[in-house]
Design the sequence.
């Protein structure tokens, strides 16, 4: 089996990406410390045509060499915006009829594999700080909480890994409509 060359993959260029129909999915990074995690989320967002990323609180913003190191140019394709206050952003998005879900381990959370999505709905997913997770006030305000089922000894996944898992799952479900 021969590996596919980059040229044969026929990926979009920047203009093609910006013109492409986006997945009705928004990502919110709530106080993410690691610049590499931020860059990785940008790259995942590019892969699945995410509509926009909001960088909130202490989350660093492009351009930054450590974000660029893992984003590999995705900061130039994926729309993004900085917001100081995550909770205010959540309320603003909800007022626009966007379904806002925290990705967190919480009582009453819906496991990702059991989550059903609604057609013609835009979803915003909040990913939290590497140590503290999504702020409790933000979880409280969310329309729901989605949790990635885990079966080993560790209590959590890296935020960039979580974003990859959840965005892939949402993309598959949203693409089915």
Sequence:
């Amino acid at each position: 089996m021969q590996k596919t060359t980059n040229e044969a993959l026929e990926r979009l260029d920047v203009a093609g990406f910006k013109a492409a129909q986006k997945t009705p999915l928004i990502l919110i990074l709530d106080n993410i410390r690691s610049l590499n995690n931020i860059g990785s989320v940008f790259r995942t967002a590019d892969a699945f045509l995410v509509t926009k990323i909001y960088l909130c609180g202490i989350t660093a913003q492009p351009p930054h060499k450590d974000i660029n190191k893992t984003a590999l140019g995705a900061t130039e394709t994926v729309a993004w915006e900085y917001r100081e206050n995550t909770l205010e952003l959540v309320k603003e998005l909800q007022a626009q009829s966007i379904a806002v879900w925290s990705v967190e381990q919480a009582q009453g959370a819906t496991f990702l594999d059991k989550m059903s999505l609604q057609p013609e709905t835009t979803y915003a997913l909040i990913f939290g700080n590497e140590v503290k997770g999504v702020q409790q006030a933000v979880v409280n305000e969310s329309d729901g909480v989605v949790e990635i089922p885990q079966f080993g000894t560790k209590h959590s996944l890296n935020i960039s890994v979580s974003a990859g898992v959840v965005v892939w799952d949402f993309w598959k479900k949203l693409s089915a409509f």
